Amino acid sequence: MSTFITLSTGQKMPTVGLGTWKSAPGQVKQAVLAALDCGYTHLDCAAAYGNEQEVGEALALRLGAGKTLRREEVFVTSKLWNTKHEPQDVEEACRSSLTHLGLAYLDLYLMHWPMAFQRGKELMPRREDGSIRYSDTHYRDTWVAMESLVDKGLVRAIGLSNFNARQTGDIVGMAKHRPVVNQVECHPYLSQTHLLSYCQSTAVCVTAYSPLGSGDRPWASARDPSVLQDPRLGAVAQRYQKTPAQILLRWQVQRGVACIPKSVTPSRIQQNLQVFDFCLSNDDMKLISSFNRNER
Predict the structure, then answer these.
(1) Which domain covers residue 90, as residue numbers?
(2) Fewer CB in 10 Å around end: N or C, the chain?
(3) Is 112 known as a binding-site position?
(4) pLDDT in tens, 69-100
(5) How far apart are CA 101 and CA 93, in angstroms?
(6) Which residues are marked as site: Lowers pKa of active site Tyr (predicted)?
């Protein structure tokens, strides 16, 4: 099986990338270096993660003349945050990510969420009662502004994140530059079968974040089951002599889903890329799909 997914633009996006969400300051740079050094060529970033500058420091050490990699060999994604949905803010937000990453262009720029927050410097603008201050800017207007980034050469392609099937279809129906990716939480406990089927029917690639489960979600209880610890998964992993994480990633790869597992541990970063030397049987694919509980 290919290690790339060909997007509707013709770009080849590596099927497995390194996620950088929730990677603590001081750890991200080393994680990116470890990933690039063991063969990763796909990095998933976002302005809201607050660590793009560190990712940029790592890229500066590995990309360019006389270094390990050429810019065109690495696929870099970033995301537009909710406070930057006003059309006049979109280009500035993109340029800010480019500056932090030390890049002249992004391979992919995603709208991080469909909802817009009130403009300003706060990441999560809140009212006195703690509720989020939303803006009435529609994601369609934000999308039109993102399309101009493609026209200006700042990004090669644009896409979505956390959009449902109806919202995705809304953009597909009006787009001049169609979305090439919809990045959503996806793992066997939240298999996203309907969304995946819809996206694939419209040539939108699904990328899974939290592909190993979302045990570190803020609302998680210690009693909540973890997909990585699911004994049924453990039994499959034993049969293939692979780690449970490798089985979860392979399941996504065989469904045609790209994945961006996050890790700051060099050995795990390397293991997460080693999912192209074996194949899950149809029965095991069905078994893992049966774990679904529509649970975030």
Answers:
(1) 4-289
(2) C
(3) yes
(4) 999 999 999 999 999 999 999 999 999 999 99
(5) 13
(6) 79
